[in-house]
Design brief:
By secondary structure, the protein is of the alpha/beta class. 34% of the residues lie in helices and 26% in strands. Strand 10, helix 7 and strand 11 form a beta-alpha-beta unit.
Length: 259
Amino acid sequence: MLTKRIIPCLDIHEKRVTKGVKFKNNVVLGDPVEMASRYYEEGCDELVFYDITASAERRPIDIEMVAEVAHAIRIPFAVGGGISTVSDMSRVLLAGAEKVSVNSLAVANPDIIAEGARAFGAQCIVLGMDPVAVEDTTTFPSGYEITTRGFRERTGMDALEWARKAVDLGAGEIVVNSVDADGTRAGFEIPLTKLIAENVPVPVVASGGAGNAQHLVEVFEQAHADAAIIAGMIHTGEFTIPQIKADLATAGVPIRKVW
């Protein structure tokens, strides 16, 4: 049985890790290299690094920061934000990342997914999506609309339709980040994650809302997520990765043990 992955997320702004609620009111939490090193040593399975304002500000990703974080760890590492071309993807991968996450760019230019998959393989291309719940299920049959640029822009795109299209284009993994749950620490949005996980043939990563180990148990068992992104619950020091993994193991979730 494949083990479930625990993936700390580092949201970077001006070379510092920050965290907000529903993409707002971000507070500074620490140095990304130091935090990446600590989570790696504690036994996380992967890391993800988002330059959270690069796309909105239409600037390149901080490639030096990518290289510094990659140098500090020896586990798979995904990077997103400020990636506009296949050349940008190449720079990120050469800096030490194993995966490139595209979100706003892919909505504006879906062909970038296919171009990236042809150049580097589907396993390198991650689709990040930020869906928000909507009442108009005629326009949005899934009940969720895709947003971009840090929830600043609505797209008119249905979440499930977009996920399927991205996989057809070559995305090898999908990160489903619920805008409604982001930063709330009240639990993942199970119906959304389950909907995507049960309708695409690639790994699905749940994101947004993790507040304790039970939330991870629920998203793994009920929504069939392959991995879960965590942030605030460990950034604050309230929980550690060994504690979380011990609780998951006790609940019968298959995980890579580190103790």
